[in-house]
Specification:
Distance between the termini: 51 Å
CATH superfamily of the largest domain: P-loop containing nucleotide triphosphate hydrolases
Keywords: ATP-binding, Nucleotide-binding
Protein name: ATPase AAA
Organism: Thioclava indica
Bound molecules: adenosine-5'-diphosphate
Strand content: 15-25%
Strand order of the largest sheet: 2-5-8-1-9
CATH class of the largest domain: Alpha Beta
GO molecular function: ATP binding; ATP hydrolysis activity
Number of helices: 11
Family: Belongs to the CbbQ/NirQ/NorQ/GpvN family.
Structural class: alpha/beta
Helix content: 25-40%
Order of helices and strands: HEHEHEEHEHEEEHEHHHHH
Number of strands: 9
Largest sheet: 5 strands, parallel
């Protein structure tokens, strides 16, 4: 089935990715043997960026699906659509990926209902096949096809978990927020601010991360730090930038907001000193 324009799924320019360990080599080895890979870790810590980078490096098309609880198996596999000539089958993203040999990234897969998740089972064992039952077709996955899933183990206790029968089809890599220096480097690069300011943002985030489980479900992500940095780079005063990008998104609780705001003022005392944008 080569009437699909594969190039639309290729990542043309190198995404900025700052390695934090051996993850590039490990993933490349897993891809070499077409091992399905699970990326575990908190939200906004670099999992999606890593997959984009690897897809670029391996020169594979990348098809990303943001999973949610309303998603059905048909949303992944495909469905018959009505058109003027009757009905017409339309492949879903998983089917397209299997046909063209893409990396299919199912982001936050735990959000999807378990009966949806099981459709990836025959693609993630020796069969590497996808049955399109409604269409009466059995798709053999392209040799380059690979499934990657991400999920945040932190949410599990509150919500749902992946079935063991799903989990045990994947090699897993754990991601976390990088060390202070590395995270500051990332934030400085992504937001276009100086390293010192980025470091202070990281320190604010670290305070919030210590509050995880003590009134916060999650600490401030690297993504939010980048947002704060971007506001600062647009000449928004650091305190206001932190309020908007770091404090408000995290909590609706007044006391917790005060606590986080106090952490902000510790590292960004009023009328900023040397924290101006480079
Ligand atoms: P996740 O998929 O884990 O929720 P993302 O990959 O979207 O998170 O990361 C959020 C943002 O954080 C990215 O857009 C990027 O700006 C930044 N980021 C985090 N880690 C890295 C890293 N190691 N290298 C480069 N950018 C990173």
């Amino acid at each position: 089935m080569s009437d699909i324009d594969t190039s639309q799924f290729l990542i043309k320019t190198e995404p900025y990715y700052r390695p934090v360990g051996d993850e590039i080599d490990q993933y490349a080895a897993a891809y070499d043997v077409r091992m399905p890979v699970m990326l575990k870790g908190p939200t906004g810590c670099g999992k999606s960026r890593f997959v984009e980078y690897m897809a670029w490096k391996l020169q594979r098309p990348l098809i990303t699906v943001a999973c949610n609880e309303d998603m059905t198996a048909s949303d992944l596999i495909g469905r018959f659509l009505l058109d003027i000539n009757g009905t017409k089958w339309q492949d879903g993203p998983l089917t397209v990926a299997a046909r063209i040999g893409a990396i299919c990234y199912l982001d936050e897969v735990v959000e999807a209902r378990q009966d949806t998740t099981v459709v990836i089972h025959p693609l993630t064992d020796h069969r590497r096949q996808l049955p399109l039952e409604k269409k009466g077709e059995l798709v053999d996955a392209h040799p380059d096809f690979q499934v990657v899933i991400s999920y945040n183990p932190g949410y599990q206790s509150m919500m749902k978990d992946l079935k063991q029968s799903t989990k045990q089809r994947f090699g897993a890599m754990s991601f976390d927020y990088p060390s202070t220096g590395t995270e500051a480097e990332i934030v400085a690069h992504e937001a276009g601010i100086d390293l010192k300011t980025a470091e202070r943002l990281v320190q604010v985030a670290q305070r919030s991360r210590n509050l995880k489980g003590h009134g916060l479900d999650e600490g401030m992500s690297t993504r939010l730090l980048v947002y704060a940095g971007q506001l600062i780079a647009k000449n928004i005063a650091p305190q206001a930038a932190c309020q908007m990008a770091l404090v408000e998104p995290l909590t609706d609780d007044g006391d917790m907001r005060d606590t986080l705001q106090a952490a902000v003022t510790t590292f960004f005392p009023e009328v900023s000193d040397s924290s101006k944008v480079a």
